[in-house]
Amino acid sequence: MISRKNNPTSAGGENPAAPKAPVLPAELHQTTADSGTSLTTNHGLVIADNQNSLKAGGRGPTLLEDFVLREKITHFDHERIPERIVHARGSGAHGYFQVYEPLGDITKAAFLNDPKVKTEVFARFSTVAGGAGSGDLARDVRGFAVKFYTSEGNYDLIGNNIPVFFIQDAIKFPDLVHAVKMEPDRGFPQAASAHDTFWDFATLTPESMHMLMWIMSDRAIPRSLRMIEGFGVHTFRLIDASGTARFVKFHWRPTIGAASVLWDEAVKINGADPDFHRRDLWEAIDQGNFPEWELALQVFDQATADSLDFDVLDATKLIPEEIIPLRVVGKMVLNRNPDNFFAETEQVAFLPTNLVPGIDFSNDPLLQGRLFSYQDTQLSRLGGPNFHQIPINAPRCPMHNFQRDGLRQMQVPKGRVNYEPNSLDGGAPRENPSRGFTSHAEPMEGSKVRQRSATFADHYSQARLFFRSMTLPEQTHIVGAFAFELGKVETHAIRQRMLGHLALIDTSLHDQVADALGLKGHTDEIAPALPPRDLAPSPALSLIGKAVKTFAGRKVGVLVTDGFDPSLLTALRSTAKTAKAGLVVIAPKVGGVQDAEGKHVPADFALSAASSVFFDAVVILATSPAATDLATQAAAVDWVANAFAHLKVIGHTAGAQPLLDRGGVRAGAGIVALTERKSVDTFFEAAKKGRIWDREPSLRRPG
Ligand code: HDE
Question: Which of 178, 194, 624, 691 is deepest in the core (most CB within 10 A)?
Answer without folding.
Answer: 691
